[in-house]
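Pasting two entries for a bug report.
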Amino acid sequence: MTEHYNQKRKRKAEFIKPINTLKAKVGSGGLSEDILNRAQALLENNTVDFLPLAEIYLAALMKGIEMAKEADASADKEYIISSMLYPGMQLKANGGMFHYPLVTKIADKLIQFLEVIDEADIEVIEIVLAFHTTMRAVVLGRIKGSGGTHGANLIQALHDACMRYFEKNKGNIGKMIIAEE
């Protein structure tokens, strides 16, 4: 599958390097192997329920979808897109930590889609709603891991929907680029 659906990115993530207070406390030279192993084990054996956190971000995504549906011509297009992009980023980041890599992959495809669209028209809203519905089904079904063949098929179906959108809306999207796979 191609990154960003062969489209030129219109918005890029801004990386902000915060002050590293933890490093100041620990000092230079890094952490001991024992501490790193214990931290890794804690992450791998994490039993915290992802559902409540995922529901918060899925609700925020739905709020962004509703905002896009109700937007008029004077609405701030970037704000509307970012209201869907931020919860997608949170779902991507937290999916893996809570052993839901399928949510991470689906959210990644959503982010790639939202990074290249010009505006949230009705077709975009339908596609974002499909991403939302799919991630919600994965979380409510407590599908941990990759989801196997079904998971791959879900991701492919969402990817194909995005590609159909860009094929249909070539004139509205801007210059097509070819991304390396």
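Entry 2 (this is the one that rendered wrong in the viewer):
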Amino acid sequence: MSTKRPSLLNTIFIIHLVLFGLVITGVLSRDIVTILTIWLVFYFIWAPLEDSGAYFVRSIPFFMAIPLTPSFDQFNMWRILSAVIFLKWFFVGGLADMWPGFINFFKKPIRFLTKHEFIFLSGLLLFMATLSLTQTQDLTSGIKRVIYFINLSLVGIVLYSLILKNKDYSQRIIKNLAIPTIIVTVLGFVQLSMTYLMDIYGFMRVWGEGIECKLFGEEWCYIASWVGNTWFAYFGEQLSLRVFSIFPDSHSFPLFILFGLPSIFAIALTRATSKTGHSTKALFKTRAKWFVLWVPVILLAIILSGTRGMWLAGISTLIGSFIFATIFLRNHMHEKNVFKYLSSYILIFVLLFMVAYPIFASPQFLLNKDNSDLLSNRVRSIIDFGETSNSLRLEIWQKTFESIKKRPWLGVGIGNFPVVLEQDVTLARAGSSAHNLYLNIFAEMGMIAFMASLLFLFLMLVKMYNNYIKESDWFIKTYFASTLLFVMWGLLYLMTDIVLFDERAFLIFSSIVALTLGINNSNSAGKNWFSKFFNI
């Protein structure tokens, strides 16, 4: 690969970051976002697909809403750029690669679908989402939601095809995923430091009425400032920041950096994990790269988000990981030792609560706190069913089950969950949901979509496991051992939230899916990637 292309990519990315910073701080007008988007469109058309894909994944949190009109300023630049990447791929080779598969599908559709489960399940989910539109109270919201998820999936399809053609490209994507993970974590701590320099009103002016407006548009700005947000932990008159960095809420931020952690592990720990024949104890004595220092920093940021479901899921993952290694890796001794070695880093997550304690207890927003029990109270509230958010969540789950019982097959229609709670459909953007990803899918799209989504996620975890066992490259092996840990952590957390549907969380998740499905499906010389995948 020419060194000029990555150099140009890095230069454009740095300019992007500078403009991003100047726009969200109000130094430059939001009109510059339109110019930046046009510039990137031309770059994506000109640059090789490999460069466009790498640029996209490293820029996921730094795409901003385009101020198209005063009343329509929330359309994000990633939606245009993902379409550009997909269309370029489609017309320069994607259609030709797909054509044999289409022919095979129309000749023997049942055989085709049963052999290729991920395409079948993805198609089934899209079909059920479309069919559920017949049940919607607000058809426009439902159609927008279907288009939204198609738009979110486009880059993942392209990344998947590029990885199938060239397995080495997967390493480039993995490394590029580490970049936004680190940057947004650092920005989260910058945000935290600001709570010691201004009162709550000043903070809301800077973030609620400033940065968030520039990032996501006036509609979200109004919701966050006047309808509700998840930015603070309250106990009586005491409050602490729940770190959310440059994300819309304190739920999508920790999920994003959690999904970015496998990239950090692969970069930092491959030197240790590749030492075959070493015991778990010996692996700890192997020096890792300095990059491993980002692991506790990111784990601390997850704690400081104040997201209790994330805390509980992390502890559950820690316990489950050692059980998993004992049962499913007993015939793969080195892989078992490596998995336990990687799992032990989650112990740091537990220990970091001692670091988080004085931060939560410190006088933020220029207010003294009467006691230092805010963090311990928040931890105890996890199992307090009388606590306000817990009792509301239980009430929402009860209403969701009642709705599922009434409409088990097609639900209330995609994008229309507020109907379950007898709310206006527009409140979906303000967070009206089942507070459980799986129940939300069931309530909106029905039983078939619910089962298809669970099966897709289960088979994806199985594929991650197989990639870990079968892959010979230890950089990639380390990545997939880590994805087993942290994706499972995220999926457990989603039993209390639907934040995977946030665009940034979904985009990084779709990148992980592309990596997972693309590895170990590389084609032999002379066969295109699609034909290889369909065994034509």
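Dev reply: Rendering is fixed now. As a check, the viewer should reflect this: The CA atoms of residues 37 and 77 lie 6 Å apart.
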